[in-house]
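User: Hey, my collaborator sent me this sequence without any context and asked if I could get a structure. I don't really work with proteins. Can you help?
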Amino acid sequence: ERLVHARAGRFLRALHDLPFRSADEMPLSTAYTMRMDAWLDRAADCMSAAAILWVRSRALEAREFISAQQRRPCHRDFSPRNWLVEAAHPYSPPGIIDFEHSRPDLLVLDFYRLWSEVWPGRPDLRRAFLEGYGRELTAGEEETLERHSPFIALTTVVWSIEHDDREFELRGWDELRRLGMPE
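Assistant: No problem. I've predicted the 3D structure and written it out in structure-token form, which is a compact way to encode the shape of the chain:
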């Protein structure tokens, strides 16, 4: 399992390091704010106003770090559920699937699912993944994940409700509660 995580880390680093020049003239922090506002509007029917304000304030705290970043090629749903490992060849690199949401974005977002769902209970997998990635997360990246995670959990809840995916919705609610969402 650690070897799979290390190899997935190498894959993600190679993706993030692809030569890339963004043709998008909109600064990443502006795009981020627009994306956040659109999702928060969509959340109005399923979440309290207090919870939405809390998510917004936490997400805005991440903007300073985001404004200093450039877009990089990103998977945007990078987690073990999107890694294929062949049982007969467990030492081969995992096949990566589900690129439907891939686009240039803030590279730290590719760590979110691991950071929030896998690494809290498995520091060994975090070490293996980051060894494969070739570096630790910076303090700014860790802070951004911490501040941005309520927003990602909110998008999980909203998307799940819109797509009638109750199991995924519950994961979003659990994450929001874990992060301290006001009731």
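In plain terms: Residues 139-162 form the longest helix (24 residues). You can pass these tokens on to your collaborator as they are.
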